[in-house]
């Protein structure tokens, strides 16, 4: 398969020093709102990268469920591959790709568990089926067939037939506490606009332009 001619020209926008807000959290919120306003499908989807103890990276798509100047929160099974790697290294990277806007945001940072009360509040807001799913799937573990999941789901439906599903001990939230943000805007001729926010020795954010 020859993919050498598969390309697009990025002409939808520009991004300059004058456009940068002082806080990367404010800049992310502005771009995220613009992605929402553009009615992109799941603008909160992010590609989350973790690394195993032996240095093997892995990625998957997770959904951002809360965002503030404290960080970015997502929820998962604490026994999954991603969680094992997070607990081992304490660090992740995340990428948001808003292709119709020809934009990306890259985030790096350390990770911390959110409080159990935060996890419970979000868990109770989930649809009944998603709550059951958290009890059903041994995420990232090998299973012999899909029937294993379907059988377990039937068991959970009977167990929680009254509709009150408790928060599993193995399920909850992580918060990414960023140490860098990179904002990327596609431009013609592959001369894209890239700006990175980092912290100085006084923990104040500063910005630099990066070559594309």
TrEMBL record:
GO biological processes: pyridoxine biosynthetic process
GO MF term (any one): pyridoxamine phosphate oxidase activity
Entries under SUPFAM superfamilies matching the protein: FMN-binding split barrel (SSF50475)
All copies of domain Pyridoxamine 5'-phosphate oxidase N-terminal, residue ranges: 33-156
UniProt keyword annotations, A-Z: Flavoprotein, FMN, Oxidoreductase, Pyridoxine biosynthesis
EC number: 1.4.3.5
Signal peptide annotation: none
Cofactors demanded by this protein: FMN
Residues noted as binding FMN in the record, renumbered to the chain: 60-65, 75-76, 81-82, 104, 139-140, 184, 194
Cofactor binding description: Binds 1 FMN per subunit.
Pathway: Cofactor metabolism
Binding locations of substrate: 7-10, 65, 122, 126, 130, 190-192
Ranges of residues in domain Pyridoxine 5'-phosphate oxidase dimerisation C-terminal: 171-212
PANTHER family (UniProt xref): PYRIDOXINE-5'-PHOSPHATE OXIDASE (PTHR10851:SF0), PYRIDOXINE-5-PHOSPHATE OXIDASE (PTHR10851)
Subunit and partners: Homodimer.
NCBIfam families reported in the protein's UniProt record: pdxH, PRK05679.1
Similarity annotation: Belongs to the pyridoxamine 5'-phosphate oxidase family.
Name of this protein: Pyridoxamine 5'-phosphate oxidase
Gene encoding the protein: pdxH
């Amino acid at each position: 398969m020859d993919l050498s001619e598969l390309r697009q020209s990025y002409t939808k926008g520009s991004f300059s020093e004058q456009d940068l807000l002082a806080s990367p959290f404010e800049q992310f919120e502005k771009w995220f709102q613009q992605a929402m306003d553009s009615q992109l499908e799941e603008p909160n989807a992010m590609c989350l990268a973790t690394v195993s103890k032996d240095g093997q990276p892995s990625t998957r798509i997770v959904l951002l469920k809360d965002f503030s100047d404290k960080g970015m929160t997502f929820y998962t099974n604490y026994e999954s591959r991603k969680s094992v790697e997070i607990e081992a290294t304490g660090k992740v990277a995340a990428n948001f790709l808003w292709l119709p806007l020809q934009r990306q945001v890259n985030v790096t940072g350390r990770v911390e568990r959110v409080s159990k009360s935060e996890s419970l509040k979000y868990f109770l807001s989930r649809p009944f089926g998603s709550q059951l799913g958290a009890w059903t799937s041994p995420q990232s573990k090998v299973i012999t067939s899909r029937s294993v999941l379907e059988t377990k789901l039937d068991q959970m439906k009977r167990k929680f037939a009254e509709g009150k599903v408790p928060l599993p001990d193995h399920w909850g939230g992580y918060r990414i506490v960023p140490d860098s943000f990179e904002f990327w805007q596609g431009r013609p001729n592959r001369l894209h606009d890239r700006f990175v926010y980092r912290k100085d020795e006084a923990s104040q954010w500063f910005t630099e332009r990066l070559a594309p």
